[in-house]
Amino acid sequence: MIKRDIGDFAKILRISVVHQPDVVFSRKEKSKKKFSNSSGNHLIHKFMPIVSLLLAILITASVGLFLYTGINHLNGSTPGSVTISDNPTIGSINVNKIMEVYFWFFIITALLPLSFFVIWKVFSEWQKNREQIKYLLKDGKDPKDPMLVTVIAPAYNEEKSIGKCLESILNQDYKGEMEVIAVNDGSSDRTAEIISKYPVKLLDLKVNGGKANALNKAIEIAKGDILIFTDSDSYMSPDAVSSLVKCLNENKEAQMVAGNVFIQDNHGKKGLIKYFQMIEYRIEQEITRYLQSLSNSILVCPGPLTAVRRGVCDVVRFSNETIVEDADFTIRVLKNSMKIIQEPKAIVYTNAPETVRGWYKQRKRWWYGNLQLWRLHKKWAVRNPWMVFNYSGYITGICSIILMISVPYFILQYDNIPLVLMSGMQYIAFSILLYLILIGPFFTTDKRLLLMLVPYVLIYATIKVVVISSLFLCYLTGRGVRVKFGSKTFVAR
Question: Which pTM does this prediction carry?
Fold first, then answer.
């Protein structure tokens, strides 16, 4: 690979590499031993989520009983205090019973899923490490099979970021042939002019047709055996392409791979909203998407970094039927019984909204788009546990809003309101402590984010519930939401 300086970017000349046979790395001999133990490993992976769920139920029930009996007992033992069990009523309704229902609703909807996911994650990591040690290749080398890769980057009015995006693509350490297609999707700024200065193929669309259309047009002219999609406001790590290709080579049955997306850290001043998003991205990818990968059910291969085999795009294309084309494409791949996995080593950095208004616009499209996916693929979705779990989040969000609005009224029915408030504070404090115990270990390498976990739970989680609930109401009533997508503004229903 020869690099020559041209202005402020590198022009890279790539040399074709002949495909190497697998036997060079003793892949066949090793695979025989691996498959001889495959049935045992399959059973372990099959029952791991079941065992994790049972342990999570046990932990949730234990913590719930401890909080319910322990704190009430503590408050009831306070000298001169009036216990919470004064039994106020509203008509014939016992307020204590209502508060008990609210308490267990919170424990079950918040603690049970979290503990289940964390336990499953810990067990799977432990099993994965055992398998890697046991089946490490004898010569210590990784199998390689260089092939032509096409990287596609659609752009609309991205003159500020497209240059850096293309530079990150051109400076990849991948040793095989790489074709880069940058699509100018009818931009009204200097996007096309900037792209033309780089040694890439420019697909210049004169009319803005949307991201799905831009990707489909690029797929039609792409020559690669593997297609990699990225966003023009995102920047790949130097080994992103090679990591994705290696992952597909090592997992011949996989047809699609999701990379890991992190928020670009410019080491400048960051507001709370950006810190909250950094935490959210970490939790989403290291826990949720990781577990979806284990169950072969990744629901969203992210737009900033996804790789597919060429054959996938011969069957599935991007669609404008929803406002989340990447998630829709992923689900269509799943519906065609194709395996999708995650490659944590393939990393891309993206820009995140730095204002509440920008964040709301983005999440409005994402979260309402998920509801569109549920409606569009409902027959398939009701049979997919992860889709059901996601949809149930909208329902529990509505219930949580009702809870937040009505709890103050029920608290006013008690004689000793300060004691009731003190008990509530104790519940919240213990819940946050438990959250930190479960989630904290994933942030030990980043002390800044670890310190932000408490405001994340108290502030950001509450804002999310409010926004998700409002979007769900717009969906149920058929009102829809107004979104801006490219040059178009329309009401999505």
Answer: 0.85
